[in-house]
From TrEMBL:
It is an enzyme of class 2 (transferase). Belongs to the SEDS family. FtsW subfamily. One of its GO terms (molecular function) is lipid-linked peptidoglycan transporter activity. One of its GO terms (cellular component) is plasma membrane. One of its GO terms (biological process) is cell wall organization. This is Probable peptidoglycan glycosyltransferase FtsW. The gene is spoVE.
Length: 369
């Protein structure tokens, strides 16, 4: 007898589309000035993001109609793990851009393996933790193997270097361990150790130390390491409650470098004000709420853990971006999911959200209740 499927979580679907719409509008607004100057085409970034948005929506709708349990195939998981680990090694030998080797390919045809690694690691850990059962409460049998795999992925990504993405992956694995039933004592000890390790790593390289000191006092070097943080705060402050108006940003006039990327939220705050910024944060809040609701309502432990992992990585990444833009964290290269410019990031994020939508079809309770 064929299993009955519910409709997808409509609230989540609408929120995703709203975030995409905000992203396209704000990418055009943030990039138009520099596109006219450098490319001679004010629609340069908009057109490329629109193409990736269409491809991403196709990937999302496709994934939303593929039973998520089909991803729980041992051969498929092992093959995917080998491929992504190989790509994470290969990317280290690619030509560096802005001091980091993160891309495979050329120009708009390139992609970041670290974005694909998020999905593959989540599926692998969900399958592994679901199979462990009560063994997840054991530090040696449950926690250590999980963190070793997450550490391998994070370590390769750190070598690019890309500490922010590595932290997101590790934090996502930590959330999945928590939901799977790992002991509080083990997780608390690991959290403390992780914070100390992150602090030590942040101080281990000159450029990371400069970012930390710039975060503590950006005005000490206003034209150097503190420049982006200061310009971002100017943008957020200038927006006030109602904003300067769509398209009226002053910071995008070559003050914030590549404003359509990591610091697009500063342009949102400047043009749309507190109301617009709060609206975007609220949309992410609803997305996270629906994601964790899907995880809680899923009767399949594998599905629960996949939904948790996908929701966690989006929540963590969005939180880091917002904290950086508002100068509550040192500047780091983390995009705002679904809104910042970036092809491979958008494609794989929408693909993962498609899996989340599919899991919602098999939830015990679905809808807006």
């Amino acid at each position: 007898m064929k299993e009955k499927r519910n409709s997808i979580d409509f609230v989540l679907f609408i929120v995703i589309l709203m975030l995409l719409a905000v992203g396209l509008v704000m990418i055009f607004s943030a990039s138009m000035v520099t596109d006219l100057q450098k490319q001679g085409d004010g629609y340069y970034h908009l057109k490329r993001q629109a193409i990736w948005t269409v491809l991403g929506i196709i990937a999302m709708l496709t994934a939303a109609n593929v039973d998520f349990r089909k991803f729980r195939n041992k051969k498929l998981i092992k093959f995917s793990m080998l491929i992504i680990l190989g790509l994470l090694v290969v990317v280290l030998f690619m030509p560096a851009a802005k001091g980091a080797s993160r891309w495979i390919g050329v120009g708009s045809l390139g992609f970041q393996p670290s974005e694909l690694a998020k999905i593959i690691l989540i599926i692998y850990l969900a399958d592994s933790l679901a199979r462990k059962g009560n063994n997840v409460k054991s530090f040696i049998k449950g926690v250590v193997p999980t963190l070793l795999v997450a550490g391998l992925f994070s370590g390769l990504i750190m070598l690019q270097p890309n500490m922010s993405t590595a932290v997101i992956l590790f934090a996502t694995a930590f959330c999945m361990l928590f939901v799977s039933g790992a002991r509080w004592l083990h997780l608390g000890g690991l959290a403390g150790s992780g914070i100390l390790a992150a602090a030590a790593f942040a101080m281990s390289a000159d450029y990371r130390r400069k970012r930390v000191f710039a975060f503590l006092n950006p005005w000490q070097d206003p034209l150097g390491d503190g420049y982006q943080a200061i310009q971002s705060l100017y943008g957020l402050g200038a927006g006030g409650f109602f904003g300067l108006g769509l398209g009226q940003s002053r910071q995008k006039w070559l003050y914030i470098p590549e404003a359509q990327n990591d610091f697009i939220f500063a342009i949102i705050g400047e043009e749309l004000g507190f109301i617009g910024a709060f609206f975007v944060i609220a949309l992410f809040g609803i997305l996270v709420w629906r994601g964790f609701k899907i995880a809680l309502n899923c009767s399949d432990k594998f599905g629960t853990l996949v939904a948790t992992g996908i929701t966690a990585f989006i929540a963590i990444q969005a939180s880091i971006n917002l904290l950086v833009v508002s100068s509550f964290m040192p500047v780091t290269g983390v995009t705002l999911p679904l809104i910042s410019y970036g092809g491979s990031s958008l494609l794989f994020t929408l693909g993962s959200l498609g899996i989340l939508l599919n899991i919602s079809r098999y939830s015990k309770r679905n809808g807006v209740e």
